Amino acid sequence: KNVVILISGRGSNMQAIVEAKLPGVNIAAVIANRPNAAGLAWAAERGIAVAVVDHKAYGSREAFDAALADCIDGYSPDLVVLAGFMRILTPGFTSRYEGRMLNIHPSLLPAFPGLHTHERAIESGCKVAGCTVHFVTAELDHGPIVSQGVVPIEEGDTPDRLATRVLAVEHRLYPAAVGWFAEGRLTLDGLRVSLADPAP
Ligand code: GRF
C-alpha cells in the first residue's frame, strides 16, 4: 500500500512508522507544509521522496488544501497519515480522503481536542493521559477512534515530562494502526471503525 505522510516539524511519528518496516507498506512520500520541517531531511537521507507545500504561499485554506491534494495524489496514496501535521483542513480535503486518512492526537479523545493537551490534562486533575489514533473527518480531532494508549499522570508531572512519556506510546500505537490498514484489516464504514482479526 502506498502511504503518504504529512508532517510539520520533527516528524518522530513519521520516523517510527518508517522504522517499523511494515510489511506491505511503501512510504511513497513525506510532505511538509513548512520548508524547514526537521523530519524532511531525515526522510530524504533515507531515499524517501519529500515535498513541501508551503501554506504561506497560498491565500486561503481552500487554495492550500487544493495544492496539497494535488501533491499527495501525485504519489497515488492508499493511505494518508497525518503525523504532527499542524494545519486545520477544509471539509473538501477531509472528504476527499475519507476512510483513508489517519491522525494521531496526544490526548484521550474526545477529551482535549486541539492544542496544549498535556497541560490541560494535568490542570484538569486527570489521573491518566494518552494518545489517540483516529480517522480524519471534517471536525478537528473528532474522527472515529481506531486505538488509544493510556499513560498515568504522576504527582508533580509537567507537560514536558508527560509529553515525552505519551510520545513513546504514540511511536508504538501509530505504526500498529498503519500496519492494520495496510493489511486491509482496518476499515471505516460511515462512522464505524472495523478492525478484523489477522489472517490465520
Ligand atoms: C505528537 O505528539 C502528535 O501527537 C502531535 O504533535 C506531535 C508531533 O510530533 N499532533 P512528531 O512531529 O511526530 O515528532
UniProtKB/TrEMBL annotation:
Chain ranges of the Formyl transferase N-terminal domain: 1-178
The protein's annotated pathway: Purine metabolism; IMP biosynthesis via de novo pathway; N(2)-formyl-N(1)-(5-phospho-D-ribosyl)glycinamide from N(1)-(5-phospho-D-ribosyl)glycinamide (10-formyl THF route): step 1/1
One MF term in the entry's GO annotations: phosphoribosylglycinamide formyltransferase activity
Pfam family for this entry, one: Formyl_trans_N
Chain residues that bind (6R)-10-formyltetrahydrofolate: R61, M86, R87, I88, L89, N103
Its EC number(s): 2.1.2.2
Residues bound to N(1)-(5-phospho-beta-D-ribosyl)glycinamide: G11, S12, N13
Record's catalysed reaction(s): N(1)-(5-phospho-beta-D-ribosyl)glycinamide + (6R)-10-formyltetrahydrofolate = N(2)-formyl-N(1)-(5-phospho-beta-D-ribosyl)glycinamide + (6S)-5,6,7,8-tetrahydrofolate + H(+)
Keyword entries, A-Z: Purine biosynthesis, Transferase
Residues under site feature: Raises pKa of active site His: D141
One CC-aspect GO term: cytosol
Active site residues according to the UniProt entry: H105
GO biological process: 'de novo' IMP biosynthetic process
Function comment: Catalyzes the transfer of a formyl group from 10-formyltetrahydrofolate to 5-phospho-ribosyl-glycinamide (GAR), producing 5-phospho-ribosyl-N-formylglycinamide (FGAR) and tetrahydrofolate.
Family, per entry: Belongs to the GART family.
Protein name, entry field: Phosphoribosylglycinamide formyltransferase
Species name: Paludibacterium paludis
Lineage, uppermost ranks: Bacteria, Pseudomonadati, Pseudomonadota, Betaproteobacteria, Neisseriales
